[in-house]
Amino acid sequence: MSNALVYTSYMKTTPEKLWAAITNPEFARQYWGGHVNMSDWKKGSKWQHEDTNNNNNVRIAGKVVECTPPKHLVLTWASPGNEAEISTVTFVIEPVEDMVKLEVTHAELKAGSDMAQGVSKGWPLVLSSLKTYLETGKALNIFAVKACNAPKVA
Questions:
Q1: 8: left (phi over 0), alpha (psi -120 to 50) or beta
Q2: DSSP letter, residue 78
């Protein structure tokens, strides 16, 4: 059995800045606790989520399924060594007056898996830090929450 987690957030930013925050490694490093997303962001390309605090250790890897800047990004998502449990993450960015709506859907998760448990704790932290960083210029310490230090947290 598989399931999906959906997170919706509204941020005082532009679609272009939010897109850059997701796809630009130096931008992501600021709010994702030193982790970066690496790819050329072309359909079919590989992407990796790397921990720059730990010798660029690859935490998550996959492929770019769809990419329409600055509106829509779909990625496959798996832990290295556990590619049998591939899930997908979809980012949908929509302008709403002077805000942007971000909807992140993490789908095809195996119910009860380590990945499902990890991302259910990780996404709220990362997305809160992203919102805070875009609106204030200062990110949250996502590792202040003990649950975030568990293996395979997004």
A1: beta
A2: B
At 5, which helix (H) or strand (E)?
A: strand 2-11
DSSP letter for each residue of 116-136? HHHHHHHHHHHHHHHHHHHHH
Residues 6+ apart with CB under 8 A from 19: 69, 70, 71, 73, 93
DSSP E strand boundaries for 30-154: 35-38, 46-51, 57-68, 72-77, 87-96, 99-110
For 91, the token pair is 């980012």
The number of beta carbons lying within 10 Å of the beta carbon of residue 80 is 11
Per the CB < 8 A criterion, the answer to whether 72 and 91 are in contact is: yes
Q: 62 by DSSP, 3-state: which? A: strand
* pTM recorded for the entire structure: 0.91
Structure tokens at 85: 């449990």
Q: Which amino acid is at 40?
A: D
Task: Give the model confidence (pLDDT) of 100-130 as tens digits.
Answer: 999 999 999 998 888 999 999 999 999 999 9
Radius of gyration of the chain (CA): 14
